[in-house]
Amino acid sequence: MMNSRFGIPLAVTLAIVFLASLALFTVDQRERAIVFQLGEVKEVITTPGLHFKWPLIQNVRYFDARILTLDTPDAERYITSEKKNLLVDSFVKWQITDVRQYYKSILDEAQAQTRISQTVNATLREEFGKHTVHEVVSEDRNEIMKTVRERANQDAKKIGVEIIDVRLKRVDLPQEVSESVYKRMDAERKSVANQLRSEGSAAAERIRAEADKEREVIIANAYKDAQRVKGEGDAKASAAYAQAFGQNPEFYAFYRSLEAYRSSFNNHSDVLVLEPNSDFFKYLKGPGKGSK
Q1: Which of 68, 147, 245, 271 has the lowest CB atom count within 10 Å?
Q2: 1/3 Cα distance (integer angstroms)
Q3: How far apart are CA 178 and CA 84, in angstroms?
Q4: Close Cβ partners of 264 (under 8 Å, ≥ 6 residues apart)
Q5: pTM, whole model, 2 decimals?
Q6: Is 22 helix (H, G, I), strand (E, B) or coil?
Q7: Which residues of 8-23 are buried (b: 16+ CB within 10 A; e: fewer)?
Q8: What is 203-223 written as a DSSP string?
């Protein structure tokens, strides 16, 4: 009797707990939820916390509300406006903004990523075809990525998704193109180096020629100044000699004869053929003989 009395409340309590577990559900702050009633969308829940649904006739499906990353596993090949191939590795940041539209358009996240990947790749292919390799790898790339994001976002809104960012991780040339580009760059660098060496040699020759010219001019000017100073000195010396020797002509004649003797008899092998009574020897004949 006692067992049956306590068994009924216990069963009711368990039933209530079971129904409550079926009726209550929580939504995490990183999630959004849709409440379905007999397969139709009844309510979209965007606020986190504890919520209620009718058991058995309503069910809940959760969707990720965080910013998600779509990273391409392999590099895609694009063609620039110069008809050059580029291998591009990119990634996309996206987020579900309209849960109802997202559910109506897409069955799961894999399909959403496929749709976004196709849209972004098509937009990148079109934009790369409008620009050169230099523009893709220079500061213009930010403007290109902005255009790609805006155009891809227009399509993404149709499925309740927002494209937050599109970025390029790596831009490379294909292997066969890289080798030819390297060879061409190597040839161009060698050509520039040879041109610089040639210009350097020409500049060196010009500098040497100008230096030699300046040297000759300096030497000529120095020689001219030296000759002028020497001439002025000789003139002053001659004037001094003339003034000194003019006071005693006989001494001047004697001094000149001594200079002649010094020059003539400087070498023992010198030979002079003169008459003994020549005036050249008049100062060698003896004291007082030079005046006769």
Answers
A1: 271
A2: 5
A3: 11
A4: 270, 272
A5: 0.55
A6: helix
A7: eeeeeeeeeeeeeeee
A8: HHHHHHHHHHHHHHHHHHHHH
Under a CB-based contact definition with an 8 Å cutoff, are residues 125 and 151 in contact? no
Classify residue 75 by its DSSP letter.
P
What is the pLDDT tens value at each position of the chain, 292 positions in all? 444 455 567 666 766 666 666 788 889 999 999 999 988 889 899 889 888 888 888 889 999 999 999 988 788 888 888 888 888 889 999 999 999 999 988 868 888 999 999 999 999 999 989 888 888 888 788 888 999 999 999 999 999 999 999 998 888 877 765 566 667 778 888 888 888 888 888 889 889 888 988 988 899 889 888 888 888 888 887 777 777 667 767 667 666 766 766 666 666 666 666 566 666 556 556 554 444 4
